[in-house]
Each structure stands twice: as structure tokens, then as C-alpha cells.
Amino acid sequence: MNSFTAVLKNEIEKIYRRKKATVIVILAIIGTIVGQLIVSSIQNGFGIRPVNGIDFSILVLSFFVNTIMPLFAAMVIIDCFSGEFSKNTMKIVLLRPVSRIKIFAAKILATGTFIIINLLVVMIISLMIGLMLKPAEHIVSGIIMVFISYIVSFFPLFVLTIIVAFMANAFKSGTIVFFLSIVIFIIFKAVALFFPQYSTLFITSLLEWYNLWKAGTLPVLKLFREFLIMASYGIIFFIAGYYLFDKKEI
Fold first, then answer.
1. Chain-wide mean pLDDT for the chain?
2. From 85, 127, 222, 225, which residue has the greatest number of CB atoms within 10 Å?
3. Which three-class secondary structure string do you get for 173-226?
4. pLDDT at 46
5. Could you read off the pLDDT of 152-172 as tens digits, one per residue?
């Protein structure tokens, strides 16, 4: 257990030492600020009732989980595998007296840590900006709802990361994996749009899982069913990804 903790800390440190990760966090903050400016401009221009801080934070979440965050997560996990393979730094990692399953799991969990930190940063910034410009009624209950929405959004994003990790071990080129991830993401979104009855079968549609948690009465059975779908995706692609990672010759 101590060896796994050490590997996990090392992977998290490597992610945040990369300039790419720093740029992503900065872009997330800038995106939130720009989003508020755009929303405010549209509202003032068309005379629309201003969106309060709670609504704005949820609006930002909807935008981020459907566009920017999946791309950010894909870039980080690809860098953890394809990037290290291409730079031959993976040899150093595998020379340590740690099993490959621990290394594989640590890289995925480190990316998961990156995702949750980004979500929390975006949540805090969006709430602060939104509440300063337009305070909301029932602030405490609203903030709790926003917090839950951001936290549960982690799960589908994390599963998406595991799927990309599988692809990063199936293909040598990180560029190909990134391009393929975008293409598959767009295709799944399009199929779910034209065939909504099958939308819950696609992980891309489950990115909006947080909407179910905002309902007045929680749809427990639907929540549980979609959680099982995400868990199934995660388990299948984790095992498949580890199999490919374990068979790789360095």
C-alpha cells in the first residue's frame, strides 16, 4: 500500500509539474470569467433577467463537462501514457519495484485528482463571480446543490478518462489517440441527439448526470441504473487498458 501511495503522489506531482497542466488550470479560470462576461453582455443587450450566481455556476458546469473538461482530461491521461512512452521516460517508472497494475492505477487516479481539482476550482470561481454580480435567494441550499452537481460530474469524466487510457495503450501515437477521442466524442453526441432513446448507453450523454441530482425528487432507480452503466464502462476499459499496458514491451 505504501508503494502505491508513493507512486500515486509521484504521478500527481508529475502532472502538476508539466506546463500543460498549469495552462489547463489557467484556461479553466479564464473560461469561467469570460463566460460570466458573455452572459452579462447578452442579458444587458436583450434585457433578460440576470442569471444569479447559483444558476451561472450550473451553466458553467454544463459548458465545461460537455466541451472543455473532457478534452483537458484526455490531454492529461494521454500524456501520462503515450507521452511517457514516446519520451522513453516510462522505462524509469517501470524499473521501480512496483507492479504494473499499481502504476497503471496510479496514473488513472492521478488524472482523476486533476479532474476533481479543476472542477472545484471552476465551481469556486464561478460561484464567487456569479454571487458578486447577482446574489441568489436561498444561498446555502443553492451552494450545496452546486457542490453536489460538481462532485457527481466527476464520475462520468473519470470513466471517460479510463476509456481514453485504454486507447492510449492501444495506439502508439498520442496525436492519433487525441484525434480519435474527439471523433468518437462527436459521433456519440450526434447519435445520442438523433436517437435519444439510446442516449444513456453512451458515456458522453452521462456527462450531464448531475441534472438528475438537481431534481426535486431524486429518481433513485434511474440514478442507480446510470451509475451501473458508468461502473460497467469503467471496469471493462480499466481491465482492457491494463491488459494492453501489461503486455507492452519497454
1. 82
2. 127
3. CHHHHHHHHHHHHHHHHHHHHHCHHHHHHCCCHHHHCHHHHCCCCCCHHHHHHH
4. 46
5. 999 999 999 999 999 999 988
- Angle between helix 139-152 and helix 100-133 axes, rounded to 10 deg: 150
Give the 3-state secondary structure of residue 95: coil
> How far, in whole angstroms, is CA 83 from its chain's centroid?
19
CB atoms within 10 A of CB 217: 5
Question: What residues contact 70, with CB distance under 8 A and at least 6 apart?
Answer: 157, 160, 185, 204, 207
Task: Give the DSSP per-residue string, 111-178.
Answer: HHHHHHHHHHHHHHHHHHHHHHHS--SSHHHHHHHHHHHHHHTHHHHHHHHHHHHHHHHH-S-HHHHH
* pLDDT band of 5, cuts 50, 70, 90: confident
**Cα–Cα distance list, 92 to 103, 113, 143, 172, 250 (Å):** 12, 23, 44, 18, 10
The closest alpha carbon to 172, from 68, 61, 84, belongs to: 84
For the stretch 86-131, pLDDT in tens is 777 787 777 777 888 999 999 999 999 999 988 998 888 888 877 7
Whether 225 and 219 have beta carbons less than 8 Å apart is answered as no
DSSP H stretches of helix in 47-99: 53-63, 69-78, 84-86, 90-94
Domain residue ranges in the chain:
2-247
